[in-house]
Design a protein that fits this description.
Blueprint (H helix, E strand, L loop, with lengths): L1 H25 L2 E12 L4 E16 L2 E14 L7 E15 L2 E12 L5 E13 L2 E12 L2 E13 L1
Antiparallel strand pairs: 1-2, 1-8, 2-3, 3-4, 4-5, 5-6, 6-7, 7-8
Length: 160
């Protein structure tokens, strides 16, 4: 698990450093960071919050490719034992862009910090951009052995 997280983090950092070098000449890459607010749809959880980083490649006027990496913390309802559960999402995907609006999806890997569960993650997304700010409404799901976990999230990225 630690190896996968380290590889993903190094990939995002390398992509980001490369993006910062190229941005001044071509504006093809951007990097964003920001908070995540989440409302779990899975039984036993009450709310979640976290932070994510995003690297975006602006392939054309109407298409962006992205990579997102973050950490989300979800509160467990007291009737289910209380406490919290962490989730590390690693997603890559694409989105159609029309003016300030965007719609797309990401796929990847979600890993839970307690219990060691991990699995395939998917995340359809719609968004709106204002200058350097981007708001994304998403539904994210993680398929794990014996079940699944899902949440509706609002991501806010400040793009550099």
């Amino acid at each position: 698990m630690k190896k996968i997280f380290t590889i993903a983090l190094c990939t995002v950092i390398a992509f980001t450093v490369n993006a910062q070098k190229k941005e001044s000449s071509s504006q093809k890459f951007s990097f964003g960071v920001g908070p995540v607010l989440a409302m779990p749809t899975s039984t036993g959880y009450s709310f979640g919050y976290g932070a994510e980083v995003q690297a975006t490649y602006h392939a054309s006027e109407n298409f962006d490719a992205f990579a997102q990496l973050g950490f989300n913390n979800f509160s467990i309802k007291s009737s289910f034992g209380g406490g919290s559960q962490g989730l590390i999402p690693v997603l890559v995907g694409g989105r159609y862009v029309s003016g300030a609006f965007s719609a797309g999806a990401g796929i990847g890997f979600g890993s839970f910090t307690k219990g060691g569960g991990s699995g395939f993650m998917y995340s359809p997304q719609v968004g709106y951009s204002f200058d350097k700010m981007q708001l994304i409404l998403t539904y994210s799901g993680v398929s794990v052995t014996g079940g699944s976990f899902g949440f509706i999230g609002l991501k806010g990225f400040y793009n550099f």
